Amino acid sequence: MHRIMTVDGCKEVGEVGKEQTFLDRRRSSFILRNKFRRLAGDKRLGVLWVVLEPLVMSLVYLFVLTVLRSSIRSESIFIGISLWGLATVSLMSGVQCLDDFSGGLKCERVRTRVLVKPMLQFRAIDSACRTSGVAAILYFAFDVGLLAVFSFIAIGVILGLAFEGLGLNLSRIGHAIPDIKVLIRYFMRLMFFAGPALYPLTFAEGLHYNVNLINPFTYFVELARHMADLDSAILQLDPYLGTFVIGALVVFCLRGYSRIDSLRWELSSWS
């Protein structure tokens, strides 16, 4: 197998040999470990903060809503806040991914699929970690069933992968105009209070309710609440609109991941 390189990309000709396959696996493993090392940084608890952060944030808002004598159940708050935090982290990871596309290796030295594999693995593991702590609380403290707990983790993993793919569609403009990243963060903060993160969708009415029907996050969080036998509007939502919203999310997600190769080559120093 050999490569033909141009400014538009890299075309591989021939079959990939065993030595090259082994080298690709080593590179993928290196990139995945490097992602977790950077996630841990110089923090004493390292990646454990990935599990603790959604728990801490959920407890803070649970305390605030308890003081305000809200009727929202604690389990619903834990599920909503943890999934929203995961959605935000995943979306911003996709938006900022151009700074990490080399994976520590030059563009012309590593295939895109070698980079995408650990990218997907990291997002799946990170999503599972961010939901596992809350899942444990739901099971041991609130007696939520095992099926609901594992469904919650699975929903979190799918949500993380989907929103990262969605964020990839904004990576090019985010790289060209850094202010876009700031605007996206502010938008996500606004939607945290406007969307069904702190409360079930059944608490919303009128325009507030209708706007959330086109928010893909709504369908993930309401499904998780329904699986935990909590107050949820998932069965009352329009199935046709829901199919359209989730279908659009899937299309943009796949488009985002499929553009990684062209984006890497456009921004590589080699080209």
Question: What sort of overall outline do the alpha carbons produce when their principal axes are compared?
Answer: globular
Q: Classify the beta-strand content into a percent band.
A: under 5%
Number of helices: 11
Largest sheet: 2 strands, antiparallel
Task: State mean pLDDT (0 to 100 scale).
Answer: 82
Cα(first) to Cα(last) distance is: 22 Å
Q: How is this structure best described in words?
A:
- By secondary structure, the protein is mostly helical.
- The protein has helices at residues 18-40, 48-67, 74-95, 112-142, 146-168, 171-176, 179-194, 206-212, 216-227, 239-258, 260-267, and strands at residues 2-6, 9-13.
- It has one domain (2-267).
- The protein has 11 helices and 2 strands.
- A hairpin with a 2-residue loop joins strand 1 and strand 2 (9-13).
- Helix 3 (74-95) runs antiparallel to helix 4, helix 3 runs antiparallel to helix 9 and helix 5 runs antiparallel to helix 9 (216-227).
- The protein starts with a strand and ends with a helix.
- 34% of the residues are buried.
Could you outline the blueprint of secondary structure elements for this entry?
Layout: E1 2-6, E2 9-13, H1 18-40, H2 48-67, H3 74-95, H4 112-142, H5 146-168, H6 171-176, H7 179-194, H8 206-212, H9 216-227, H10 239-258, H11 260-267
Antiparallel strand pairs: 1-2
Helix pairs in contact: 1-4, 2-3, 2-4, 3-4, 3-5, 3-7, 3-9, 4-5, 5-9, 5-10
